[in-house]
């Protein structure tokens, strides 16, 4: 038997303005510029404001749309907003990323003497290299891919020949299939010397013993002295195990620039934060289209469709302008909260003064959701008087010292790294011994935590840090 009844539910639905604001919050400055440019191109109602129009447009910002009979309520947003006044275009730094790794290889390929077929295959191989510059795929499967995607039938022998040509490119070691081959390629580019000859023999014939630091076995099998081995190892450790990271260690897909979203200055003992506009324009609603909306509404049915179109564009423009304004206010409030929380650090950049801080701390200070703070922090940068930092840099968990003081994990990692750097390399400190070292300094940390931090710092275990 079917029953009918009424049920009341509370459903939270995001408004178009909220959706627009959320999307804009995530964008760094350069992407925001592109987003505004796209919106200006697609919405004829939206225009850039300029100084001469300010007085005129402020009068049209409160247009009455009551004459237009619509089922949809028109939000009462102001049609013009002056987010930050005049931008004096202060000096600012840009992260200029060098030529991308793959682009560098393709440029060298263009100067090579390979024929067009070989260059097409080489281009595919270059595109298959990973971020470190290695070819991690076997040549047989690579041949299948080239046949399927490029329509070129090839085999392992031809691929080997072309790969060896790529391995002649800079940086040395690129195109290697494993670490051993990468280091061997680099050794072969060095001038002849006794240590080069021994290093080459170690990498070619005793690589397993070398990685496990079984030095006495190598000395015995190569009939060399401990000093000979030390000189050869000194040569090997100076080689680059990640040739792909040599050209572009920050961005791997393409060369790009990062403009800081905030500028911080220290003036007369006070921290002064600004948000530079650069090429982000101030926006306004085009008055001519707003007038057209009112005129169309008076023409009855014939003007209904035109009025509906213009109203849709008008609403979209107003939402976008208001979202830009809300983005600015949210970023401004969030950065101010971070500055207040980390004030001691921002005075001189002393990392030991960086307090443990998580997203929740800033969410509580601003009254915003944690998810909103996360969007603000993502891909944003601040230029300070002591360097440029991503906002994520200032967030870290904390631990307690034996005196009950809270310190950031970053500070503990720095002390851990310093302790390992100063250790006796002939008898490197084990994780248990590092626990004792940190404990003597007042940091009470479990062995597994020390191991985790050591791994995050890319520091190997004690046995692999041992030197002659």
Explain the overall architecture.
It is a single chain. The protein is α+β, with helices and mostly antiparallel strands. The protein folds into 4 domains: 16-69 and 257-395, no CATH class; 98-170; 172-239, no CATH class; 398-465, Arc Repressor Mutant, subunit A. It is built from 21 helices and 10 strands. Strand 4 (262-267) and strand 5 form a beta hairpin. Helix 5 crosses helix 7. The model is unreliable at 51-98 and 247-256 (pLDDT under 50).
Concise summary:
The chain is α+β, with helices and mostly antiparallel strands. The chain contains 21 helices and 10 strands. Helix 4 packs antiparallel against helix 5, helix 16 (359-366) packs across helix 17 (370-377) and helix 19 (431-440) packs across helix 20 (447-456).
Largest sheet: 4 strands, mixed
**Coarse morphology:** flat
Total separate domains: 4
What is the subunit organization of this protein?
A: single chain
* Number of E-state strands: 10
Low-confidence stretches: 51-98, 247-256
Quickly give the structural class.
Answer: alpha+beta
- From the alpha carbons, calculate the radius of gyration and give it in angstroms: 31 Å
Average pLDDT, rounded to a whole number, is 79
Percent of residues in helices comes to 40-55%
């Amino acid at each position: 038997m079917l029953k009918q009844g009424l049920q009341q539910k509370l459903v939270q639905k995001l408004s178009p303005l909220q959706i627009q604001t959320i999307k804009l919050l995530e964008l760094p400055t350069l992407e925001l510029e592109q987003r505004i440019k796209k919106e200006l191109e697609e919405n004829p109602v939206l225009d850039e404001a300029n100084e001469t129009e300010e007085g005129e447009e402020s009068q049209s910002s409160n247009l009455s749309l009551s004459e237009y009979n619509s089922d949809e309520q028109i939000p009462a947003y102001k049609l013009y907003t002056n987010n930050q006044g005049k931008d004096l275009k202060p000096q600012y730094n840009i992260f200029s990323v060098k030529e991308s790794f793959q682009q560098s290889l393709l440029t060298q390929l263009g100067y090579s003497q390979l024929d067009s077929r070989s260059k097409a295959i080489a281009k595919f191989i270059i595109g298959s290299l990973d971020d470190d510059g290695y070819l991690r795929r076997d040549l047989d499967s690579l041949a299948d891919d080239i046949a399927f995607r490029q329509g070129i039938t090839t085999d392992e022998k031809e691929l080997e020949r072309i790969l060896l040509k790529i391995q002649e490119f800079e940086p040395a070691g690129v195109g290697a299939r494993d670490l051993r081959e990468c280091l061997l390629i680099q050794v072969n580019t060095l001038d002849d010397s006794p240590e080069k000859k021994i290093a080459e023999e170690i990498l070619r014939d005793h690589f397993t013993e070398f990685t496990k630091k079984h030095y006495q076995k190598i000395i015995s099998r190569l009939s060399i002295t401990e000093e000979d081995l030390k000189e050869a190892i000194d040569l090997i450790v100076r080689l680059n195990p990640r040739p792909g990271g040599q050209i572009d260690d920050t961005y791997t897909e393409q060369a790009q620039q990062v403009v800081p979203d905030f500028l911080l200055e220290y003036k007369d003992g006070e921290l002064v934060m600004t948000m530079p506009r650069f090429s982000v324009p101030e926006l306004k609603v085009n008055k001519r289209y707003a007038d057209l909306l009112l005129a169309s509404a008076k023409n009855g049915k014939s003007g209904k469709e035109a009025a509906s179109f213009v109203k849709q564009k008008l609403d979209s423009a107003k939402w976008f302008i208001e979202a830009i304004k809300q983005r600015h206010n949210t970023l401004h409030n969030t950065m101010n909260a971070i500055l207040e929380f980390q004030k001691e650090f921002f005075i001189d950049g002393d990392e030991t003064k960086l307090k443990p801080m998580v997203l929740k701390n800033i969410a509580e200070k601003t009254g915003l959701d944690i998810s909103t703070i996360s969007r603000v922090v993502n891909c944003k940068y601040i230029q300070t008087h002591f360097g440029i930092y991503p906002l994520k840099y200032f967030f870290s968990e904390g631990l307690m010292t034996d005196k009950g003081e809270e310190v950031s994990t970053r500070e503990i990692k720095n002390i851990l790294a310093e302790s390992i750097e100063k250790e006796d390399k002939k008898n490197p400190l084990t994780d248990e011994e590092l626990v004792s070292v940190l404990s003597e300094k007042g940091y009470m940390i479990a062995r597994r935590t020390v191991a985790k931090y050591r791994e995050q710092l890319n520091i190997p275990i004690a046995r692999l840090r041992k030197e002659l």
